[in-house]
Write a structure and sequence with these properties.
Length: 347
C-alpha cells in the first residue's frame, strides 16, 4: 500500500487545515490489492458561502465501489486515477458558512474515504444521533435498508405468503431483506451465507431456514430448505446462486436482481445462468435495479420500516474496523465475507 507522509499543519487555528484521503492509485485487475490505493494528506480548500467543513467519524465501504474502479460506462461514473475515492460518511460539522447547519451538527454526505471534507450544505443530510448511532445512517437507516425495501416491494413485487430466498443473507442488505420480507408477510424466508456462524445468526434474526453455501451445491441446499420451491429471490450474489434460484422458482416467481458480488472481481465473463430457458415455461420475472431509480420510496421506508428498526423489532449487525489507514483492507474484506451486517470504518 502506498502512503505519503502527512505534513504538519501550520495554521494557528484549532480548525483542521488538511485532510487524509484515499485516492485510486491504479485500476485493479481481478481482486484489488493494497497497491491500487494511496493515502494522501492534502490541504483543505477555504470554505465558500453555503459550505460546511465536516470531521468524518464513520465511513462506509460497499461492494458497488469495486465496479467504480473499472473504467467502464455504468449507471455511476468510474473513479478516476489519482482522484479521491468517494462514498457515504457521517461526521460532525466543525465549521459552517451555511445557515442550514451549525457547528456540532451531525450530517451524512458522500465524501467518505477521507478524514475531513468540505461539503456543499445542500449535499448534506442531517442525522439524529439520539435516535440511532451514526453507522445506522450508513446502513439499515440509509441506502442499505432502502435497497432491501425497494427490491422486495417496487422491484420484485413480493406478495404475502411468498416463500422468499435471499443470498448474501448475513450481509447488510441481505439481513434487512429477510426481516423486512417477514414483516411484509412472507410465509417462509430462507437465507444463504458463507459460514456456520452467519447461518446461526440468520436463524436468530428470524429466518425460517438458512444454509452455508460452501457446504455443497447451492441447488441441493436450496431444495432441502425449500421443498415446495420459492416464489421470490433477492439476488445479492449472482452466478451459481442465481441459477439455483431459477431452478427452484415456482410458476410466476419473481426475482429482484440487486447484486452479483461473486462476479465483481472476475477476470473472465462468467458462464450462466445456464437454465434461463426455464424462465419462459415458469413465466418468471427477473428484474434488475439500481437504487437511484427508487429513491422516491425513502419516505415510505421512513414511515413503515425505520420505526421498526428504532424499536428493535428489525435488528441489524455492524462490523467495525478502525482508522482511515484500514479502509482499503475493510473494503477488501467484503469479498471474503469478513463482515456480518454492515461494514464500516470509524476514524
Ligand atoms: N442494486 C443496488 O442499487 C444495490 C445497492 C446496494 C447494494 N447492492 C448489492 O447488494 C449486494 C450486497 O451488498 P451489501 O452492501 O449488503 O454487502 P454485504 O452483503 O454486507 O457484504 C458482502 C458479502 O458478500 C458475500 N460474498 C462475497 N463474495 C462472495 C461470493 N463469491 N459468493 C457469495 N457471497 C459472497 C460475503 O458474505 P458471505 O460470508 O456470506 O460470503 C460478504 O460479507 C452486493 O452485491 C451489492 O453490490 C446493490
Amino acid at each position: 500500500m502506498m502512503t505519503s507522509t502527512p505534513s504538519a499543519s501550520s495554521a494557528p487555528s484549532a480548525l483542521p487545515t488538511q485532510t487524509q484521503q484515499w485516492v485510486l492509485a491504479s485500476r485493479p485487475k481481478g481482486m484489488p490489492t493494497a497497491e491500487n490505493f494511496r493515502l494522501e494528506t492534502v490541504d483543505l480548500p477555504e470554505l465558500a458561502d453555503g459550505q460546511i467543513l465536516v470531521s468524518n467519524t464513520v465511513a462506509t465501504v460497499d461492494p458497488y465501489m469495486r465496479g467504480r474502479m473499472n473504467d467502464v460506462k455504468s449507471y455511476i461514473p468510474p473513479f478516476q486515477i489519482d482522484q479521491p475515492l468517494t462514498g457515504g460518511a457521517v461526521g460532525t460539522v466543525v465549521a459552517s458558512k451555511s445557515e442550514k447547519f451549525a457547528v456540532g451538527d451531525a450530517v451524512r454526505h458522500s465524501f467518505g474515504w477521507q478524514t475531513h471534507a468540505v461539503v456543499n450544505a445542500d449535499e448534506a443530510t442531517p442525522v439524529d444521533l439520539n435516535l440511532a448511532p451514526a453507522h445506522a445512517y450508513l446502513g439499515i437507516l440509509g441506502l442499505t435498508g432502502l435497497t432491501a425495501y425497494a427490491g422486495l416491494t417496487a422491484v420484485g413485487e413480493m406478495k404475502e405468503g411468498d416463500t422468499v430466498f435471499v443470498s448474501g443473507a448475513a450481509g447488510a442488505v441481505g439481513s434487512a431483506v429477510g426481516q423486512i420480507a417477514k414483516h411484509l408477510g412472507a410465509a417462509r424466508v430462507i437465507g444463504s451465507a458463507g459460514s456456520d456462524e452467519k447461518v446461526a445468526r440468520l436463524l436468530e434474526l428470524g429466518f425460517d431456514a438458512a444454509f452455508n453455501y460452501h457446504d455443497g451445491p447451492v441447488a441441493d441446499s436450496l431444495a432441502d430448505a425449500a421443498p415446495n420451491g420459492i416464489d421470490f429471490y433477492f439476488d445479492n450474489v449472482g452466478g451459481e446462486h442465481l441459477e439455483a434460484a431459477i431452478g427452484a422458482m415456482n410458476d410466476f416467481g419473481r426475482a429482484a436482481l440487486c447484486g452479483a458480488i461473486s462476479q465483481y472481481n472476475a477476470t473472465e465473463r462468467p458462464a450462466g445462468p445456464k437454465n434461463l430457458v426455464l424462465a419462459i415455461g415458469k413465466c418468471l420475472t427477473l428484474r434488475g435495479f439500481v437504487l437511484g431509480h427508487y429513491l422516491h420510496l425513502a419516505q415510505e421506508f421512513q414511515a413503515t420500516i425505520a420505526p421498526l428498526v428504532v424499536s428493535g423489532e428489525i435488528k441489524y449487525d455492524v462490523t467495525t474496523r478502525h482508522g482511515i489507514e484500514n479502509m482499503p483492507a475493510a473494503f477488501l474484506e467484503l469479498f471474503s465475507g469478513g463482515n456480518t451486517g454492515k461494514m464500516v470504518v470509524e476514524f
